[in-house]
Amino acid sequence: MLIHSLRCLPEIEALVMVQCAAQRGDITVEFLCRKLPGNRNARARAVLDYVIPRADSLLEVLANYHFRRAGLYVRRHVEVPDVGEVDFLVEDCLVVETDGATHFEPRSVKRDQRRNNRSIIDGYLVLRYYYDDVVHAPEVMVSEVQAVLKLWRGGRYPAGPANGVDLFA
Prior knowledge:
Blueprint: H1 2-8, H2 11-24, H3 29-34, H4 42-48, H5 58-69, E1 74-80, E2 84-90, E3 94-99, H6 106-121, E4 125-130, H7 131-136, H8 138-153
Parallel strand pairs: 3-4
Antiparallel strand pairs: 1-2, 2-3
Helix pairs in contact: 1-2, 2-4, 2-5
């Protein structure tokens, strides 16, 4: 069924199916790759490149897919000093977090806001996206990320420690 979905469904739908099966340990990406030889399966194999071995959520998988399709340089699960692990570090200056329903609990909201503050103090920009953003408006999410990066590249935001400059020196 997964091979059929990789060949026939839109990329994102096939990706979600494969990600779920791989995350549960029902199948490996390597196994699927071996079952999809030759040029006619190139598109199907390309979808497998978007599977995240250690995804915390499908939101993360979908956001990663959209960021990479937009040509952004993305690192996942990056450990940021004094902040902890962030979902994404885009272009090494922008922290992007994808938050599901558990992030609406009061304790989580406070923790996330403190992490945002610490990230900014340490010289990173921060954007947060929720289920509706990632699933229903990914083009808006990507365009906002690109807009912030454009402003950063244009000098709108000062370079901080994330970029080799101490803001407080």
